[in-house]
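Ticket #4471: structure output looks truncated?

Reporter: J.K.
Steps to reproduce: submitted the chain below (233 residues) through the standard prediction queue, then opened the result file.
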Amino acid sequence: MSAAQAPGLAGYSDEVREEVARVREVVARLHAELPRWELVVWTAGNVSQRLTTADLFVIKPSGVTYDELTPESMVVCTLDGELVDGTRSPSSDTAAHAYVYRHMPQVGGVVHTHSTYATAWAARGEAVPCVLTMMADEFGGEVPVGPFALIGDDSIGQGIVETLSGSRSPAVLMRNHGPFTIGADAKAAVKAAVMVEEVARTVHISRQLGEPTRIPQEQIDSLYDRYQNVYGR
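Returned output as attached by the reporter:
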């Protein structure tokens, strides 16, 4: 559906329209974090967040540079990826985001970048091994690799769900493509995108000096439990 044919939000309650306005502001603001942390170039990458009041999500429009993004330019889609409201076409990754939301109800935010080091690991089709306490804290183990999938339908979303459903990691390296991250909301997914690039870079540098030492699983479990359930509480 083109933006000109989008039905709009008139049929939704005031509560939903108010949440859409809030989430548009959140998603627009969080997109600015991607170039800030050098996770994207030009128009690549996207952030989305699911609504709590309706089966909708807000995502970046396609082909718009980051300095042109505003809350009003964000588009609203159904969980089937159909455009509901917006003046532009949704991101080319919309079908992947929608598939994740349909099949992972605990997920409230999805992010995709082509950050350099994480994408380099994806190009190798190699998981990032858990050799840092930061990785145990944030990812609960290695950062896994998902299958190769073409853009345009929900194949990427299927690969994300298949890979992360059996993993504590909020990040997956889609083979020959790049990282996708998930979270309870878009902010958490953006944090995961920042962290996966940091650990991918650090482990890459470590391997130039020799093979890094993997952390034993029982220690990974202990670190993960502490960070997720005790740290900062």
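Triage note (M.O.): checked the attachment and the full token line is present. The chain has a mean pLDDT of 96.
Status: closed, working as intended.
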